[in-house]
Amino acid sequence: MTFKSLSDEVRAFRAAHPDVRYVDLICLDIPGHFYGKRYPIDMLEKVAAGSLLKLPQNCVLLGAQGGLHEIGDYCFNDGDPDAIRRLIPGTLRPVRWEQQPLGQMLISSDGTDSPIEFEPREVLARVLARLAAKGIRPVVAFELEFYLFDRALKDGLPQYPRDPLCGDEDDQPNLHIERLSRFSPVLHEIVEVANEQGIDANVITAEIGPGQFEINFGHCEDGLQAADWAALFTRLTRGVALKHGHRSSFMSKPYLDAPGSGMHVHVSLYDEQGNNLLALDGGTPLRHAVAGCLDWLPHCMPIFAPHHNAYRRYGSRVNAASRASWGYEDRDACVRIPDSDARNLRIEHRLAGADANPYLVLAAILGAMEHGLEQRAEPIAPLSENRQSGIDFPMDMLAAVAQMRHHPEVNAGLGEEFVMVYCENKRQDHLAFMEHINAREYRWFL
């Protein structure tokens, strides 16, 4: 439903949900966590009517554990200034999984007079605006894999989820439809709550890992909204899972002996007349777009694999590449071309982990496709012609950051300030992670 104004949207929400007293105003930071504030709903009406909404600018720079890193002049040398945020129309929705009635609404600095250059949503908004100025309209669909775990940890480690009916562990994973039936209460409510949030979540698949599932979204003609859906889906999935006695995680590789979880992104490009640009001239633009994706991929690895665990997913025996590659109907490829008619011709970018930031993943994919269309280069051989075809990409965070930091096309496409901030955030997060000595090191070397 669309409203004439934000005030109308808030009033309609209050009328439909009179028991809601508070609304969480939320935005995604660089590591992919939501930050924000909980507002009384009567104050939300004032914000919708024009009162300024401000939060510290540096909330966007939070590390993976919530602390601040010193990055350039930010955080410790800038006085921690506030920055204006705006409410995102159409995102005020009820929250079903909390104990008390609650609402939530997305906020962003994009579209304000002084957007934060390194805010993930703003990075994507700039890429989409540049494509729109060229008459290019992306249509996007995300697919997200995730794991369910038992609520209780054992020695700090996750445990397989248990069948709510018989209490058995989900320790014999497969693609059988019966696994959907065993976990249907939590899976169906995840989809229902997603739909209440305005997310077109639909198909549910049992994946190969223990407690692993995938839920797909419909194709969306608004790239920002498509990424909003993916971001909001991760929050609601965790909340609904806890309500049903499970933990949930989009962690890239929670078990070394089971498949990782990916974020697959389908992208088509259309012109203003509705023609699929990738299908023109016998599919030549499709090959150019693929070449751009493969060219950028080694230089965007900190986005696709944003932390140490994410690199454990690559090189798996199950549909997780270790080199940049492409192919038709080939799930071993980073860039897969699904079988389709010319109207729906698209790429499926399969490299990102499920815990990557969806705004940044989509921005990197679209920037790479734009680069390829402009360069008009031909891609390397597809895997169907040569199973060894591929381009090496870095397999650890420090090498990945070094390869992204000064790449001219990535800096130009995503923004120099963003690339600097993002790379330094990831570098410092990685160094902080490596400062901890785990039990295995003591077992090996004491």
Structural notes for this entry:
With 446 residues, the chain is of the alpha+beta class. It has helices at 6-16, 41-49, 120-133, 178-182, 184-196, 223-243, 284-296, 301-304, 358-375, 397-405, 408-414, 416-434, 439-445, and strands at 22-28, 34-40, 53-56, 82-87, 93-95, 102-108, 137-150, 201-206, 212-217, 246-249, 263-270, 323-324, 326-328, 335-337, 347-349, 391-392. The chain starts with 5 loop residues before the first helix and ends with a helix. It folds into 2 domains: 6-116, Ubiquitin-like (UB roll) (Roll), CATH 3.10.20.70; 128-437, Glutamine synthetase/guanido kinase, catalytic domain (Creatine Kinase, Chain A, domain 2, 2-Layer Sandwich), CATH 3.30.590.10. The strands form 3 sheets. Strands 7, 8, 9, 10, 11, 13, 14 and 15 form an 8-stranded mixed beta sheet that branches. Strands 1, 2, 3, 4, 5 and 6 form a 6-stranded mixed beta sheet that branches.
Outline of this structure?
It comes from Phytopseudomonas punonensis. The protein is an alpha+beta fold. It contains 13 helices and 16 strands.
Rg, rounded, reads 22 Å
Straight-line distance between termini: 63 Å
Beta-sheet strand percentage? Answer: 15-25%
**Main structural class:** alpha+beta
Query: Ranges with pLDDT <50 over ≥5 residues?
Result: none
Q: Give the biggest sheet.
A: 8 strands, mixed
- The number of helical segments is 13
Helix share bin: 25-40%
Protein name: Glutamine synthetase
Domain GS catalytic: 120-446
GO molecular function: glutamine synthetase activity
GO biological process, one term: polyamine catabolic process
